[in-house]
Amino acid sequence: MYTKFVPVTTLLVLLTLLGGCADSGPAEMHYGEDQCAYCRMNVADADFGTQLVSGKGKVSRFDSIECLAAFELTNQDAQDGSRRWLADVNRPGTFLSVDDAVIVHGRELRSPMGLGLAATASTEAGQRLAAETNGDILSWDEVLVYVADAWDVRR
Prior knowledge:
Blueprint: H1 2-19, E1 50-53, E2 59-62, H2 65-74, E3 83-87, E4 95-97, E5 102-106, E6 117-120, H3 123-132, E7 135-138, H4 140-151
Antiparallel strand pairs: 1-2, 1-3, 3-4, 5-6, 5-7
Helix pairs in contact: 2-4
């Protein structure tokens, strides 16, 4: 009996440990129901909704890239081991890692919080969106600086 118990117990322990290593990918969004963790407005637009998944797996949802950036600027916990997910404006409801996204600041782009930020999946799509909206492509660090200046948000 002991020899049958050890492999089963070992398997259960391994499955439990692997379950703790779950992907920290984007969680499901409930547009019209989820509340922005920064500004408290409802997350309503699948073109712009974003997420931050903490190193511990806590999901914070936002109605715009600018709210995610402001949240990161004002919350130390948001900076440690967190993953940021941005909506692909060309494929609403699809998320891109901030590391893979091309972020556009379009002066004529209407984002929910008014700073004209959107994300796309490719450089070509980003350049096209920037041209269409009189904009520029920004890095995540440039987004943080832009939001900090525009909203007077400091770390």
